[in-house]
Amino acid sequence: MTWMESFRTSWSAVYSHALRSMLTILGILIGIAAVILTVGLGLGTQLDVSAQISSLGSNLLIVAPGSSTSTTGARGGFGTSATLTIKDAEALTSTVNAPDISGVAPESTTSLSLTANDTNWTTTVTGTTTAWTSVRQRTLARGAFFTQAQADASAAVVVLGSETANELFGTQNVVGQSVVISDKTFQVVGVLATAGSDSSSNLDDVAIVPFSTAATDLVGGTASNAVSTIYLQAASDTQLSAAYQEADALLLNLHSISSTDDADFTISSQDALVSTATAVYQTLTILLTGVAGLSLLVGGIGVMNIMLVSVSERTREIGLRKALGAPPWAIRRQFLIEAAILGLSGGILGAVIGVVAALTLPAVIGSSIVVSPLAVGLSIGVAIAIGIVFGVYPATRAAKLAPIDALRSE
Amino acid sequence: MVEPLTNPLEADAPGPVIELIDAGKTYTSGTIEFEALKGINLAIHEGEYVAIMGPSGSGKSTIMNILGCLDTLTRGQYRLGGTDVEELDEIELASVRNQQIGFVFQGFNLLSSLPAWRNVELPLVYGHVPREERKKRASRALERVGLGDRLDNKPGEMSGGQQQRVAVARALVGEPTMILADEPTGNLDSVSTRDVLSLFDELNNLGRTIVLITHELEVAQRARRIVWVKDGAIVRDEVNAA
Ligand SMILES: Nc1ncnc2c1ncn2[C@@H]1O[C@H](COP(=O)(O)OP(=O)(O)O)[C@@H](O)[C@H]1O
Ligand SMILES: [Mg+2]
Q1: Each residue of B70-104: pLDDT tens digit?
Q2: Of B109, B175, B103, B187, which Cα lies nearest the Cα of B138?
Q3: Pairwise pLDDT comparison (B186 vs A224), residue with the higher score
Q4: What ipTM score was computed for the predicted complex, to two decimals?
Q5: What DSSP state is assigned to residue A214?
Q6: Neighbours of A342 (CB within 10 A)
Q7: CB B27 near ligand 1, within 6 Å
Q8: Do B113 and A5 touch (CB under 8 A)?
Q9: Which residue among A12, A316, A324 sits closest to B98, beta carbon to beta carbon?
Q10: What torsion do the CA atoms of A317, A320, A321, A327 make, to the nearest 10 degrees?
């Protein structure tokens, strides 16, 4: 009996029990599609996140208060005493001490309510310097960013994000309008061009004011000089690590800290953020894939179940084939191929459905799904393997049937 | 060696193709033992047409299963073509069934999902005959049994007599040395019975060894030798005078 012959026999068995075969295939199909989708979603999210982090701006370093290297001791951090101040940011602009840093944009952020006419809208009010647009790589859709003169004068001017403008005025054509923030009237001088959102915030729902204005009119008290983040731009790609070292040395010196290990601030680069985010999403992907893999296991048990039914239902046929000269291996092969066909069909259909879903779903759920050919190939392989592994026991049972007992069965 | 033997007792005949020596079979189900064959001796030579005759429950099917290598003895010896079948492993037994034996069962035992010619070619499939030749030989065998126009019919689309003729075609397609038929006419009407029995006559005339199991005297009398079985023992072994 040739392989082709075994295959033909097995195929006709699968085909002649179409409904039952379809249901078995469905079990595998769902598992395979789920694996392809979860792996694709995981990879896609990783890509999205790295793209978002990269969109923060090129050659960017981010200085944040608090230590990332140690959990011991009181070194300050988010929400505790202000460890990063506008003084730090000013020091970093020095072309003597930090020649590789070409741009410095400190940010102090507060969530505040804005009022225009009778409309209220709460958003993140950011106090910063004029370098902000170039460091954060933002452009203006209307009007202009506030000027150095306005900053020096602590002028009551504000630049709105496109969404903020829409929420407050119903239009973006708002240059020259007034907005009340914390009882003080600000004049809108510009509206930012749309930028989407990054992993933590909506970049289009913001209100940007001069740092000095924020410090005097919006924050006040001891916290008024504090900044929540300082964005640094290196002069070029190759100067990134030099810029890092300059910033580190300068800030340690300013804070009178002798060892990097004791630093009360953290400098991170996009690379570091990307790899952290990637690690998180990788773990998540592995977990989800494990869950999807479980459904594959259930599908495999379905194959075994159906194969056992198939064997006991066809005991007489097995007996007859043996009487006509089928050796045990031919019977075993016939049932193994049958199980493999179920697995393979489930694998291919599952791959097709998984890929189609991966191509259509992103439009609906808004996050990318990456179809990796490796994942598709692997899961089809796994589907066949599942068919065979779970088919071994039923096939061996069929092969071991004594011809006479099989023939006698009714 | 196609020369038909008319007299099994002929002294200078070649060694028997089938030889049961003190053959016993005891069925055990749980603690209950049942001795279905009580040490029988039987020799059948190539080209013989033997009927095994006896009432229901006398052990005829047991004999047929032993002769067809479908079941094993619990006592004594079964020699097929001079070889003790006990020495053969499962794969060799499969090959013996495939090459040397053609079965015809009372219940036809056709695969209902396959058309007639595919049922008939089954022994050739396991005998490694190439595909094109299988179809040719299956068609020829079906023509021999008068079903040349029913190659593509499934068993469900045929009468009992036609189905049994398909089964006969399947038994002869591999050109085995012997044909074992267990009550082949048990489910057939008289016309179909006559058809099937005349097929056996023809096959035997061509030199095929035939062992026909039946409980009907009328059927047994088509054979040239009748072996009478009762309660697991041979009670009479005679050349059919009729
Ligand atoms: N597998 C079995 N287990 C137990 N007893 C059996 C089995 N097969 C047959 N027998 C018994 O052996 C006896 C002979 O059976 P069988 O050879 O089928 O008779 P026949 O074909 O002449 O009607 C019967 O009494 C039957 O009940
Ligand atoms: Mg019987």
Answers
A1: 999 999 999 999 999 999 999 999 999 999 999 99
A2: B175
A3: B186
A4: 0.91
A5: I
A6: 32
A7: yes
A8: no
A9: A324
A10: 120
pTM of the model: 0.70
Query: Which atom of ligand 1 has the smallest separation from the CA of A408?
Result: 1
Which one of B91, B111, B114 has the shortest CB-CB distance to A327? B91
Q: How far is the CA of B222 from the centre of ligand 1 (A)?
A: 25
Q: What's the mean pLDDT in A85-98?
A: 86
Residue pair A233/A107 in contact (Cβ under 8 Å)? The answer is no
| A317/chain B closest Cα distance in angstroms | 7
- Determine how many CB atoms are found less than 10 A away from the CB of residue B160: 15
Q: How does pLDDT run across B2-51, given as a tens digit for each residue?
A: 444 444 444 445 689 999 999 999 999 889 999 999 999 999 999 999 99
CA of B35 to the centre of ligand 2 (A): 15
Burial class (CB in 10 A: 0-12, 13-18, 19+), A283: exposed
* Nearest-angstrom CA–CA distance, A289 and A282: 10
Interface test with B, best of A3, A324, A400 (most B CBs within 10 A): A324
Task: Report CA Rg, chain B.
Answer: 18
As given in the structure block, the two tokens for residue A350 are: 């599952």
Whether A169 contacts A200, CB under 8 Å: no
- Looking at residue B86, what DSSP letter applies? G
User: Would you list the DSSP string of B147-202?
Assistant: -TT-TT--GGGS-HHHHHHHHHHHHHHT--SEEEEESTTTT--HHHHHHHHHHHHH
Q: Which amino acid is at A382?
A: V
Closest ligand to the CA of B62: 1
Rounded to whole angstroms, how far apart are CA atoms B128 and A375?
40
Question: No. of H helices and E strands in chain B?
Answer: 7, 10
* CATH 3.40.50.2300 fits domain B47-72+89-239: no
Give pLDDT tens digits for A20-30. Answer: 899 989 988 99
Percent of chain A residues topping a pLDDT of 70? 92
Q: Tell me which of B20, B61, B106, B212 to substitute to probe ligand 1's pocket, judged by most ligand atoms within 8 Å of the beta carbon.
A: B61
